[in-house]
Write a structure and sequence with these properties.
6% strand, 3-stranded antiparallel beta sheet, 13 helices
């Protein structure tokens, strides 16, 4: 790979196009060489088993579809629209002819991507979206005051399932349930002292107190922002929670103004998700007062600063950029091998070199699409009141502060909830 001495100076939309080019060149392939299909290979360079899609990570593919829709909105193209159709077909075939699985977070992500493909890219998916939405509506329980579990048969109720579910419910006409879900998250999972959103909780027995896991993940903040935005736009919800959470993200999760990462594996996607919904805040939050304007500007600045840092730190070669798992640090050239361990169908650890993981590269592409959506126009003004927190600190110090533990799902021992904890 040839690498210029410094990152090329290109416009946000061109950065997004180059990031898309990289994913399409390195990762997008036919499923089992079947005509009319596409799916994302989960690592590059891939192992033989990865080329055969022995592991394929359902929810990573949902975000790949979402990114393809982002690109279609940026630069409409008949060939890409056909790729989206092939991708949806490949996903369903690899999933055994089914749309869903047992994980409510997975199916919420997939339904959100399908809905956008239908409404924005013109690829019909309404029946699948309707079926998944009905499944999510039926998963609600008054146990622990409401919410849905992480997966079928589990008691753990977390933001990564309830957040995207609330976005989907708001977009599909279930506004009352979306409002109830957003209220449940705010009442049960907002961390006192930081105003960030915790990972989840295990309900207590009978009237016992729930055990809250206060680990902080960037994507938990993103999905709550997305849900509150949909409710603000569609139901006239007050914007106070959005103002508060954007401020908290800037204060605690963006040292030096650059959004922090969570390594590779599943964690590789987390901050790209946050960037996506920050960009939505920047361009869609109704501008009713000065605080709305400040929040839009702060959200835009977080995305644009992160995109600038990620682009500077990326390795730039013939096929496009290779992004690092932490956008403030230089990316490394990934080698073959060192695939992260997979526990069950949910826990995917980082590869030895996280840059190898599709999740990390997708997150970089999502960031570039988010920055392209914002552009460098009115959203980025001199009046931005961005809370940047402290200067860049060592990763081990990043989680400093009461009630804040910046988490990673890469690998590690099992916690009291039966899930992997930090390294």
């Amino acid at each position: 790979m040839t690498e210029p001495a410094s990152a090329p100076r290109v416009a946000p939309a061109d950065r997004a196009a180059l990031a898309e080019q990289a994913i399409r060149a390195r990762s997008l392939r036919r499923l089992w060489a079947l005509p009319g299909t596409r799916l994302g290979v989960v690592a590059w360079p891939p192992s033989f088993g990865q080329r055969l899609f022995l592991r394929w990570h359902y929810w990573w593919q949902a975000h790949l579809l979402d990114a393809l829709v982002d690109a279609q909105m940026r630069a409409p193209d008949d060939e890409r629209r056909a790729t989206i159709t092939r991708f949806i077909r490949g996903h369903r075939l690899r999933n055994g002819g089914r749309w869903g699985n047992n994980y409510y977070d997975d199916i919420a992500w997939w339904a959100l991507a399908l809905q956008r493909a239908d409404e924005l890219a013109g690829v019909p998916s309404g029946a699948a979206v309707s079926g998944i939405t009905s499944t999510i509506v039926g998963a609600w329980s008054d146990l622990a005051g409401g919410g849905i579990p992480w997966r079928r048969g589990d008691v753990f109720r977390n933001t990564p399932a309830n957040g995207p579910a609330a976005i989907l419910l708001a977009r599909t006409g279930y506004q009352d349930r979306a409002l109830a879900t957003a209220d449940w998250i705010d009442q049960r999972l907002r961390i006192v002292g930081t105003d960030l959103i915790a990972d989840g909780l295990v309900p207590g027995e009978a009237d016992g107190e729930a055990a809250v896991d206060e680990t902080v993940y960037t994507y938990c903040q993103g999905v709550v922002l997305g849900a509150e935005l949909e409710l603000a736009v569609r139901a006239g919800r007050d914007h106070g929670r959005i103002h508060r959470l954007v401020t908290a993200v800037g204060t605690h999760l963006a040292p030096g103004g650059v959004l922090t990462g969570h390594g590779g594996g599943n964690g590789g996607l987390f901050t790209g998700i946050l960037a996506r919904y920050l960009a939505q805040i920047a361009v869609r939050l109704p501008d009713a007062d000065r605080q709305d304007a400040r929040t839009r500007s702060a959200a835009a600045e977080l995305v644009l600063r992160s995109a600038d840092a990620a682009w500077r730190g990326a390795r730039h070669g013939r096929d496009g950029p290779i992004f690092g798992p932490d956008w403030a640090d230089p990316a490394r050239q990934p080698g073959r091998g060192g695939t992260g361990a997979v526990s069950g169908n949910a826990m995917v650890a980082a590869s030895r070199e996280p840059e190898r993981d599709l999740s990390v590269q997708l997150s970089g592409w999502m960031l570039m699409e988010a920055a392209a959506l914002i552009g460098t126009g009115p959203a980025r003004t001199a009046g931005s009141e961005l809370p940047t927190g402290s200067e860049r600190t060592a990763k081990s110090e990043l989680a400093a502060g009461p009630g804040l533990r910046a988490g990673s799902r890469d690998a590690g021992p099992t916690d009291r909830f039966g899930r992997q904890t930090d390294h």
